[in-house]
Write a structure and sequence with these properties.
Blueprint lengths: L12 H16 L4 E6 L34 H7 L5 E9 L1 H4 L4 H21 L6 E3 L4 H5 L31 H7 L19 E9 L13
Antiparallel strand pairs: 1-2, 2-4, 3-4
Helix pairs in contact: 1-4
Bound molecules: iron/sulfur cluster.
Iron/sulfur cluster (SF4) binds next to helix 5.
């Protein structure tokens, strides 16, 4: 169990100050809680991407940020290695709101926070920081139109906002949330919101220099 922030003991105090500053920014942007964890504790499992395919998600293959257009979990395990830390953040939401039309706005908020934290981290010199979101960018930004990122000679319409979800790379969000002590309940499309005690959506920002050859998570 990772009950409190784990700062990077191998890095200088500047890196840790950056992580704590980024955490504050995440809370200012509307995150309900944020935890700093070592990047190598992020669980990446092959089976998780099954959640990205029907009947769990109808967007499989329809977005440049969804499987099979992003790296495989096996590649993601290699890709994550150069990163020293990760910020996981959550937004608490009432299950009824999550199942309503308003729920889409909460997903959008995760994208906005993740992309903004990535941008801030890059601006502060952590050039290859990378944000990951929750759900498919197709559902949030391009619900009724084709993904331009998958069309020859075109690019993503929202490159500053669209990110792969954690699940798309094989990250076990359920396990990770439990690991940092957050209550999380399984939610399926067919779930009755009245039967779910609480709900949350989570995003993640990987912080570290990384290397360009590893920066292939997004197909956008
Ligand atoms: S154009 Fe961009 S935001 Fe829209 S579905 Fe494709 S990758 Fe996602």
């Amino acid at each position: 169990m990772i009950e409190r922030d784990v700062l990077d003991t191998k890095s200088d105090s500047k890196v840790n100050a950056h992580l704590l500053w980024l955490k504050k920014e995440a809370l200012t942007l509307g995150a309900s809680d944020v935890r700093i964890i070592p990047a190598d504790t992020v669980p990446i499992e092959d089976e998780i991407i099954e959640m990205c395919s029907p009947p769990y998600c109808e967007q499989y293959g329809k977005s440049a940020n969804c499987p099979p257009h992003v790296m495989t979990p096996e590649d993601a395990r290699q890709w994550i290695r150069p990163y020293h830390s990760a910020l996981i953040f959550k937004i608490d939401v009432s299950p009824r709101v999550l199942f309503s039309k308003q729920g889409l706005e909460i997903f959008k908020k995760v994208f906005l926070i993740s992309a903004r934290l990535e941008e801030l981290s890059v601006e502060q010199g952590h050039a290859l920081s990378k944000g990951l979101a929750a759900g498919s960018c197709k559902t949030v930004f391009c619900r009724d139109i084709p993904c331009d990122g998958l069309i020859k000679d075109r690019k993503c319409r929202y490159p500053s906002l669209a990110r792969p979800s954690m699940e798309a790379l094989g990250i076990n969000v359920f396990r990770l949330a439990k690991e940092v002590g957050w209550k999380i309940h399984a939610i399926l499309r067919k779930s009755d919101p009245n039967d779910i005690p609480s709900a949350m959506l989570a995003g993640l920002v990987l912080v570290g220099p990384g290397s360009r050859e590893h920066d292939k998570a997004s197909g956008s």
